[in-house]
Amino acid sequence: MKFFDLFKLLLNNPGQFFDKIKFRIGIPNSDVNKIISHNNNAWADYKNPNAKSIILFDYYPVAETELVRSYSLNILAKRFDAKIVSYSTNNKMRSKIWDKIYKSYNVEDHVFTQLSRQQKKESNLIYKEVAPTIRTKKDLFNLHISDVWIGIDVYEEYLMRYTKPTVDLNDNRLMSILDEAIQMLVFFIDISRKITSRLLTQAILVCD
After folding, report:
1. How many domains does one find in the chain?
2. DSSP secondary-structure letter at 36?
3. Of 56, 79, 112, which residue constitutes the final position of a domain?
4. pLDDT tens for residues 105-147?
């Protein structure tokens, strides 16, 4: 939000203005404090920072999903004797408030998926090989790379990100999402080469 917009907000709605300022500098409001307090009470006995296995999940700061994720992640961590780690492709989405919420339900660390030079080279080669083979929507939807069904995620991400009813194969933004997906795949395949991994859902990766 630009300075002028903040100034207008201060004049028109001082309470909301100060809430935004507190959020930016990492001061939780009463609602966030309630969530943190609940998590601290609910998951205090589930902490497992010394576990060798990890559960990776995407850093996705949406309040409506956090209650379900706090339960599912801690139950899975208990089941697999693992610690919980978040990841993101863009550190700009991170916030001090959400870091505190995640910490309250035992998220131990964060991974920023920044590719190495070798990983970028590998992902570029895969993209150049795969992109010309996508001639129809069915080709995209059914796309598998390294035994991972990546096509469905690219398809759904395009629809969600751009609020489209279907994919447009002539839209360069679609190919950009495909490129992003291949980079993510290469990054996490490298992780799985170092540790045995099991993909449980689109958003959760359990690694031993």
Report:
1. 2
2. H
3. 112
4. 999 989 888 899 999 999 999 999 999 999 999 999 999 999 9
